[in-house]
Structure formats: C-alpha cells, structure tokens
Amino acid sequence: MNEKTRRAIETHIERIIKEFRFENQRADNLEKCPCYAQNKPCHNIPLEEFNCLLCFCPEYNTSNSEGGCKIPEKGKGEWFYHPSHQTGRIWDCSNCGYPNREEIVREYLKAIFSLNE
After folding, report:
1. What is the pLDDT of residues 35-44, one digit of tens each?
2. What domain count does the chain have?
3. Residue 117: inside a domain
4. Confidence tier at 77 by pLDDT (50, 70, 90)
5. In this structure, is residue 87 part of a structural domain?
6. CA of 21: how far to CAs of 7, 25, 69, 85, in Å?
7. pTM summary value
8. Residue 88, helix vs strand vs coil
9. Suppose 110 and one of 10, 51, 95, 115 were both cysteines; which one would form an S-S bond, judging by CB atoms 3.0 to 4.6 Å apart?
10. Is residue 80 situated within a structural domain?
11. DSSP annotation string for 11-67
C-alpha cells in the first residue's frame, strides 16, 4: 500500500471513530438505543473513551447457543443462570467494555484495512 493510500485510510478511520463516539451517536440516534435515551453508556467506561461502533463485540462466541468470549483474559464477562436456556446458562458481557474502548475500535479498523502490517 502506498503512503498516500495509507494516510487516506487513517484519516477515514479517525472520522469513523469520531462519528461513533457515544455523544455523537446519542445526538443523532436517540431512539436507536435505550442507553442514548438515558445518556448512560452500556458499560462502565469513561465517556471520552467510549465508542459504539463495535456495539456487538466481534469477540463474542457465536458458535454455540450459550455464547461466550473468545478472549476471556481481556474481558470481565461471566456466566449467568438462565432457566429457559437448554444449558441453563448464557454468557453475560455487561461487565466488559473491551470492544467499546476507542483504542480497540481503532485497532480493529486498522486490521480490517491491513494497516497493522
């Protein structure tokens, strides 16, 4: 990738990150998320670090019906009892803010555009 292309992609990554900051999403999409209406992010992360782009974590294990985390050492998720689920448990990520941190979003976007090489 030439340097001009790399700079253009990096500029767009920063625009994407800015667009998906909690306060920007709240201003533009108040009805789309109950957290926007409450003006409270869904995870306990400082507002200036919070980003909504990866609302559904790319590290959530969808290979089975109970879920799980592909990177448990980074998250703070836990199993919780769910009587109507066939296994009796479901993975709960509410204590994890891993995918909502701006620095993580930036790294995912760089990986998608092959800028981490």
Report:
1. 999 999 988 8
2. 1
3. no
4. confident
5. yes
6. 21, 6, 24, 34
7. 0.80
8. coil
9. 115
10. yes
11. HHHHHHHHHTBHHHHHHH-GGG-HHHHHT--SSS--GGGBB-TTSS-TTB--SSTT-
